[in-house]
Every structure is written in structure tokens, then in C-alpha cells.
Amino acid sequence: LTTPKPIFIADAFSSTSFSGNPAAIVILSKPQEFSNETFQKIAAEMNLSETAFVSPIELQESECPKFSLRWFSPTNEVHFCGHATLATSHVLFTEMWDQLPNTASLKDPVNAILFDTAYGELKVERSSSGQYRMKFPQGQPEAVTNMEQRTLDRILELLSLDPSADKVSEVCLCTKTRKLMIRFENLNSILRATPHVSDLLDFDFHGNEDLIQNVKGIIVNTQFREEDQSVLKLDENNYDFVSRYFTPWNGIPEDPVNGSGHTVQAVYWGKQLNKTNLKAFQASKRRGELFMELNDDGSMYLCGYAVKVMKGILDVPQ
Length: 318
What we know:
The chain has eight helices and 17 strands.
């Protein structure tokens, strides 16, 4: 016997199919409808950077619709995922709105939903243009001052870079999102980076406990310059920074367009450029763009588009 469940794939941080970052979205009736082992098996079967499991929460009076949301990579549950939150929001608003108990009965138009997650309560708004605005806590990048030079050099080597040629401007760590951010002086370093996955997983950061405990992903980025437009073959040149993101610790050599990492980068580049509204380009093969708005209260909006590319039924063995 099997339990059929609606399943979708949507590309996040893109307005065109087959770009941005794909996520699978499984619609459940209740949060613990299946075991964690089954959730993990489904995510491994999907083999995308994240699979989201979402279920409705009973609507409370004068409250926008609320859902339980969990994210799984092919190897483990993750604490926070921006792109799968965006993809899930798109599916709920455009595909499932009239089929779920907490939304089908709504009489007045609603342009916001809430998610109950391990990272806290997250709010997502949908604009008239179809862009989604996700309200997240800001990341907390702090300059790394206790890293030996040999440790940084080895990290660069494990990204297929040359410590003598690929010049690093600054290294920051966000323990909140468990991401190491390396700022380079030029775009070429970003584009040439290629992770040695098994060696990164085996690397002990030369015994640096802060890094051992808190690095589950590596962001490489640089400030966008006008000449980068032709190199990246972009239609616009109004980006603030360019990045890529590697997270073999979550079973993902390279995440095509990473949302949570931009909660860290937005704070860093906001300070560097003295801006509260930023636009970023992620230079993976699938490519994607993100918009960020920093608020004074420690929150921020991470904004982007999404497009559905697949709809079907997942048969889950009972």
C-alpha cells in the first residue's frame, strides 16, 4: 500500500524554467505524517539540494495562513533554507491555495503566509508582480581573526585555487547560519573555484574548533564591477556583488542559488557599500539573482521569483 502525496518541483530565484535553484515540495496533511527516516529517503530520492515538506496549520482568527515547514538535503535535515522556502511559497500561492483547509475557505485575498520552522517563524509576502518577499533574521558575519594562514591557504587549495594568485580581501564566519565567507579581490577567483569534496569533508581546519563546529558551507564572493557584465554575459550591470556557494557537508558540492547565505552577505555588503537595498548575482551554471532589503530591527527581506517546472504524485510506502 502507498499514500499518494502531491509533489512539485519549482525553480527559485529565477523567472524562467531550468535556471535558479530547484527544490522539491511535498504537500502533507500534518507535520509528522511520515517518519524522519521516510522524509530523508524522499529527499535522497529527489536528489535536489533541498526537498521541502509542508503542511497546513489550523487557521487562527485574524491570522494569515500558517504552515509547518521542514527542509531536507539528500543527506540530512537542514536548519534553514531560503530557496526552498521561496519555492514552497510559490507552489502554495499558485497551485494549492484552493485545495488546503486553511486557505480554501478564505473569502478575502491574502498576500502573506507564515511558516513554522526550526529556524523560527518566517513570513513570506507575494507582490502583485509575482515577486516573493521573505522576511528572515539577518545573518551575523564576523571577521575571522584566529585562522592561521596555512589554514586559509589549504581551504583555497581545496577549492582548486592558488593562494599566491587568488587574493583574499577578508574572511568572515557566521555561526548562526554556519557559513564561512571568503571575499576575493576579483571575479576570476569566484569563477574558477571548484571544490574537492572528499578532501573538504576530511579537512580538520588544523584543529581550529570555531571552524570545525561552525562551517557547513563556504561562500566565495567579490564586489561586482562594471567589466564583470560582459564576463558573466549579463543584460544588466546593477548588481552589488557576485557569489558562489559550496556545501559538501550537506551532500551538495555546489548549491546553484543559495538563499540563507545571502542573509549573511547582505549584512556584510550592506556595511561595505553603505546600502540597505542590494542586488546580487549567483554565478553557478544555473545562475540566479536575488534582491535584499535590510531593516533596522535585525530582520531583512530576501526577494526573488520562482517558476513551477513539475507537478505530480509521490507514492509513499505505508
